[in-house]
Amino acid sequence: MGVEIRVEGLTKSFGRQTIWQDVSLTLPAGEISVLLGPSGTGKSVFLKSLVGLLKPDRGHIWVGDRDLPRLPEAQLYDTRKLFGVLFQDGALFGSMNLYDNIAFPLREHTKKSEGEVKRIVMEKMEMVGLLGAEKKLPGEISGGMKKRAGLARALVLDPEILLVDEPDSGLDPVRTAYLNQLIVDLNSQINATFLIVTHDINTARTVPDNIGLLFRRELVMFGPREMLLSSEEPVVRQFLNARKVGPIGMSEEKDVSELEAEAKMGHDPGRLPPIPPQLMPSDGRVRPTQHAPGGWCAAHGVVPPPGSFIDDLGRNWVEEWPRYVAAMSPVGGGPAPGGFGQAGGGRPGAGAAP
Ligand SMILES: Nc1ncnc2c1ncn2[C@@H]1O[C@H](COP(=O)(O)OP(=O)(O)O)[C@@H](O)[C@H]1O
Ligand SMILES: [Mg+2]
């Protein structure tokens, strides 16, 4: 079911350069969280710290009752097996075909027979849509396929925690949409705890259950998707809406004169755009850890921006949700016949009449 990760007061510096300080957040078990931030704010450093590849200066990373930075080497090695990681560059071995690349962790870390290895590799290749590409070399395939292969390799040891660094970097918008759908589908199937690093705003707005934002060496905010998408906090609002007006400038921070000029021009951050419905698994099922649309807003007395939670067909997902959940959870499980959401592009129920 995935495990919770609790980060407390984490600080990391290289020499005199503090990358971020006092970062605290909880990745809820089984949920999808996204970590956002301008380039160079230390998102990759954060992922590497989580898996113990970099040692933080201060703070805790609790996985169950184990505090990673304080584990003896042997226990750290064991705990790392809970993690599947897809780094930014994919890091496939160029001289190995996809099958051998994906089999690598199994051959390295387990004593499984080649028969078992084959069963697992083929299962994961099917999950990421790569069946038939076993013999291909990394140099012969597209960027999107490389990411899929990296994902399959991150999945072979059945991780409780999946960390993915910029799955969308270098991909076109359509490939990114497919990859986002794959991430949601994988979460629905394996129920691990996911942390995705990205700077793609659309990914951040539609994929996760939770969003965090790193800026100016701090975690500005971390919480449920609806909390950040309805937030008036200037940095959060500027970043999640990809605006020029706000504290973030061309080279990370605007200086005082730029901000003053902006204020004189009467630049207004404007109204918040609607909160989009969350991407659903392509079989239309509700993920076990999925939050009800509008749930956070309702529980916190926040009125979401006008037009929120309405899909491309004009359906309001706050109103539809109870009916949808009931229709998708018949006794014995499985999608209800003729019901909602037959894989219609991933938005809740897109393509099906209510
Ligand atoms: N091993 C390292 N040694 C020294 N500095 C590093 C190291 N890794 C990253 N950095 C620095 O940490 C900062 C954050 O890097 P990174 O995590 O890659 O940013 P992001 O992933 O958010 O774009 C950068 O200034 C980078 O140069
Ligand atoms: Mg990075």
Automatic annotation (TrEMBL):
SMART domains registered for this protein in UniProt: AAA
Per UniProt, residues of the ABC transporter domain are 5-241
Species in which this protein is naturally found? Actinomadura vinacea
Q: Does the keyword Transmembrane apply?
A: no
> Looking at the record, which segments are called Disordered?
334-354
Identify the domain of life: Bacteria
Q: Which PANTHER family match?
A: INTERMEMBRANE PHOSPHOLIPID TRANSPORT SYSTEM ATP-BINDING PROTEIN MLAF, PROTEIN TRIGALACTOSYLDIACYLGLYCEROL 3, CHLOROPLASTIC
Task: Tell me the keywords, alphabetical order.
Answer: ATP-binding, Nucleotide-binding, Transport
Q: What is the lineage of its organism?
A: Bacteria, Bacillati, Actinomycetota, Actinomycetes, Streptosporangiales
Q: What protein name does the entry list?
A: ABC transporter domain-containing protein
Check the record and name the InterPro entries matching this protein: AAA+_ATPase, ABC_transporter-like_ATP-bd, ABC_transporter-like_CS, P-loop_NTPase
Any Pfam family matching the protein: ABC_tran
Q: Spell out the SUPFAM superfamilies in the cross-references.
A: P-loop containing nucleoside triphosphate hydrolases
**In this entry, which stretches build a coiled coil?**
none
